[in-house]
Amino acid sequence: MVLVVLPLNTILNALRIGGERVDWRRMGLEALNRALHDLGVFALRHIGGRWERAGHLQVSQDNARTRRFGPRRAQITVEEYSLRRDGLRPLAPQDRLVYLEGYEGEVFPVEVVEDPSNTLLPHGPPFN
């Protein structure tokens, strides 16, 4: 048996809520985050192996180009940080960032997060 670990953007692109496919990129933020919270707790891992955590997935209003952090005079975007730190350029920097509930300050482009336990594969809850 081969275990395939899917990047989070692949999983979110196939997301279904109430049996209907939803476009997570355009869905209202409050409704999307409530629906994602209702799916329950699952494991996520940074593809660079920097962290692995379990929690409720949430989506930020910011994207990789609009979210800035760091000292006031040296702030960088999440897109710049991802490229410098991990050598990863988001394929869709205009997509909203994701985080785990309780870690709102740690947001990531969906391309750098994966589901190592395959809790979100097609047999799992988001694909009813």
Number of domains: 1
Could you list the spans in which at least 5 consecutive residues all have pLDDT below 50?
121-128
Radius of gyration: 14 Å
At the first level of CATH, the class is: Mainly Beta
Sketch the major β-sheet.
3 strands, antiparallel
- Lateral strand order in the biggest sheet: 4-3-9
Q: What form results from the Cα inertia axes?
A: globular
Structural class: alpha+beta
Q: Considering DSSP H and I runs of 4 or more, what fraction of the residues is helical?
A: 10-25%
Give average pLDDT, whole number: 81
Order of helices and strands: HEEHEEEEEHEE
Distance between the termini: 24 Å
According to CATH, what is the topology? paz domain
**Would you report the number of β strands?**
9
Description:
- By secondary structure, the chain is an alpha+beta fold.
- It contains 3 helices and 9 strands; from the N terminus they run H-E-E-H-E-E-E-E-E-H-E-E.
- It has a 3-stranded antiparallel β-sheet, with no helix packed on it.
- Strand 1 (16-17) and strand 2 (20-21) form a beta hairpin.
- 26% of the residues are buried.
